[in-house]
Specification:
It is built from 9 helices and 15 strands. By secondary structure, the chain is α/β, with parallel strands linked by helices. The chain folds into 2 domains: about 1-105, Beta-Lactamase, CATH 3.30.450; about 110-354, P-loop containing nucleotide triphosphate hydrolases (Rossmann fold). A hairpin with a 5-residue loop joins β4 and β5 (about 85-90). The two termini are about 35 Å apart.
Length: about 350
């Protein structure tokens, strides 16, 4: 296992690396240790790392992974062979000492049925989303940091039929997906004389590789323009994530990303492109220590007169953990086939066993 590479440098917290329930390990400059276990963030009692120990450990980890961290280069963003992320910031940018965060890579992604069983996803909303994916609708997943966007993305991608060719584009490869005809592209920063290769570069290049679906792990900037150009010219079936606090704001955020492309496009025109391309937005949040899909909306275009997106609520979760509301439960995205029998059976069986 790849964690064996760094265990000699982090002995006091080594046991968390073998705990499958722990998804993230955080060490603050004070030496206090926090973990995320089953979606809940807690402090680890009676375990601390001295500032000197932590600083030396991070430098050794960086060298082992072929990178470096120092006062002149204070940010480390590296990856272990299994895909786990190692992020660190040292002084002076990290006030008081070094900060270390390790996000463990899940070896097997959650399925849609498992998310339903755990209570993260309502069964009616799950069925609607599976049908949207099978119908090659373009779905945007929105949420904050650590809300579970990547987990939901991986689950929905798992529903894509095996015969389809997927081009998956990420800033750093962390989406867990196994498909027979999967091609993964990863952005590259300018290091050691090698040129930078951006997400936007990869979106443009992906069109030459005969994709049935173009999947961008997270939309952050100008690549939004090129992605929407592809979606509006026949490359449907995309599923991507974006940082936003609501489904409606996700579309506004996407418009701002388009404007970062440098293309002289009026804001309303950018919104119009989004209204034509995006079919649904899923909002996922953290509530009471749990990751929950709180809203699903269908995008029905952009109203130029009102200067607003035309949205139809498909699903909204209530304020309490158990309350939910499904609007028009029988209405699915237009031209979507029924969910496959296998997908429907997985959802219904787990729902009955809950």
């Amino acid at each position: 296992m790849s964690f064996n590479l760094i265990l000699p440098f982090v002995r006091p917290i080594a046991h968390f690396f073998s705990d499958d329930d722990v998804s993230e390990i955080m060490v603050n400059p004070s030496g206090r240790v926090f973990i995320e276990r089953l979606g809940v963030l807690t402090e680890v009692p009676d375990v601390t790392l001295s500032p000197k120990y932590l600083n030396v450990a991070v430098k050794n980890i960086a060298r082992l992974l072929g990178d470096d961290i120092s006062e002149s280069r204070p940010i480390l963003d590296a990856r272990l062979p299994d895909g786990s992320r190692v992020a660190a910031i040292c002084a002076p940018c990290s006030v008081g000492g070094t900060t270390l965060t390790i996000r463990k890579f899940r070896r097997r992604p959650f399925t849609v049925a498992e998310l339903v069983h755990s209570g993260s996803l309502d069964s009616d909303a799950a069925d609607w989303l599976v049908k949207a994916v099978l119908g090659k609708k373009n779905v945007l997943i929105s949420g904050g940091t650590g809300a579970g966007k990547t987990t939901l993305l991986s689950a929905l991608l798992g529903e894509i039929p095996e015969q389809e060719r997927i081009v998956l584009i990420e800033d750093t490869a962390e989406i867990c997906l196994e498909k027979a005809n999967l091609v993964r592209f990863e952005a590259q920063r300018a290091v050691g004389g090698a040129p930078e290769v951006s997400i936007r570069d990869l979106v443009k290049a992906s069109l030459r590789h005969r994709p049935d679906r173009i999947i961008v792990g997270e939309v952050r900037g100008g690549e939004a323009f090129d992605l929407l150009q592809a979606l509006n010219t026949g490359h449907s079936g995309a599923v991507s994530t974006i940082h936003a606090s609501s489904a409606a704001r996700a579309l506004t955020r996407l418009a701002h990303c388009i404007l970062q492309s440098g293309v002289a496009l009026p804001y309303a025109a950018a919104c119009g492109q989004i209204g034509d391309a995006i079919d649904a937005v899923v909002q996922i949040e953290r509530r009471h220590g749990r990751r929950l899909v709180t809203e699903v909306v269908a995008v029905e275009g952009f109203d130029y007169e009102r200067n607003a997106f035309a949205l139809r609520t498909v699903y909204r979760r209530g304020d309490d953990l158990g309350g939910s509301e499904v609007s028009e439960p029988g209405s699915f995205p237009p031209n979507c086939p029924p969910a496959t029998a296998a997908a429907s059976n997985r959802i219904s069986k787990l729902e009955r066993s809950a």
